[in-house]
Amino acid sequence: MAGTSGGGRTGGTPDLSELAAHSASLERSGTAERVAAVLRDRITEGYFPPGSRLSEESISGALAVSRNTLREAFRLLSHERLLEHRLNRGVFVRVLAVDDLVDIYRVRLLVECAALRALGEPPFDLGAVEAAVSSGEQAALRDDWPACSTANIRFHQALAGLANSARTDELMRNVLAELRLAFHVMADPRRFHEPYLTRNREITDRLAKGDAAGAERMLAFYLEDSRRQLAEAYAQRLTERQPRAGRQPRAGR
Fold first, then answer.
1. Which positions ≥6 away from 233 have C-beta within 8 Å?
2. Would you say residue 130 has pLDDT above 60?
3. What is the C-alpha separation between 75 and 83, in angstroms, rounded?
4. pLDDT tens figures, 185-243
5. Are 39 and 18 in contact (CB under 8 A)?
6. How far is CA 160 from each of CA 13, 166, 171, 197, rounded to the nearest angstrom?
7. What is the pTM of this model?
8. Which residues partner with 9 through β-bridges?
9. Which of 105, 135, 127 is nearest to 204 (CA)?
10. HSE (CB half, 13 Å, CA atoms) of 163?
11. d(Cα 102, Cα 99) in Å, to the nearest integer?
């Protein structure tokens, strides 16, 4: 992947020094909820890829919090299906299954389209939507596709945010953090994300013209196309992992 601002990784390992920047925003006895929010944001930004092991020692040191606080944050994120505890091995970022992907898109279709359907009379407050679209376009110009991926997620958060519902915002934060784990399966992030930059702009323009119904129709097709592409990539990955036909393991292995 080109660019680094969306991934924060060096040689495949996250540079935990970046987490230290968040320690100032946490009280010395920072709550597990605040720690979980920081880690959730970093997962959403692609900083911790699926399958990554999260070191208690390194992360608690970077955030300047106790291990007990961090463990509680891990527990909260496990409940949100972002992390998993593997017996005698530690805590890892989840690797999604195809069923997870299908369910994520089912929720997105219900929530995002409903948010547009219930908008009422224009003009609509599109400040956050426009900012996310512009951020994605600027990231593409820098050839920074991890950052473009993050901007895309912010775009969809902003669409759901048009519902002006704190509960909807919380739901979508969690759902879209899970979605970011699915994006890692795409071998060519530019090929995947670049067409959606144009579609994000088109949906925003429709909303700016007061055409919420038209924007909703575009979004429904958009979400189905995205789900299909990711599902195909997952299927391809599973095929590649299958042993070749006719090959048998050698004796003693």
1. 185, 186, 187
2. yes
3. 8
4. 888 889 999 999 999 999 999 999 999 999 999 999 999 999 999 999 888 876 776 55
5. no
6. 33, 10, 10, 18
7. 0.77
8. 14
9. 127
10. 20
11. 5
pLDDT at 252 over 60: no
Tokens 């969809």 belong to residue: 156
Q: How far apart are CA 104 and CA 178, in angstroms?
A: 8
Residue 33 structure tokens: 């909820």
Q: What is the mean pLDDT of residues 82-94?
A: 93
Amino acid identity at 216: E
Instruction: Output the CA torsion 205→208→211→214 (10° steps).
Output: 30
For the chain, strand residue ranges (E) read: 9-10, 13-14, 53-54, 83-86, 90-93
Kindly state the DSSP code that residue 25 receives in the 8-state scheme: G
pLDDT of residue 29: 39
Mean pLDDT score across all residues of the chain? 86
Residue 12 has what pLDDT? 57
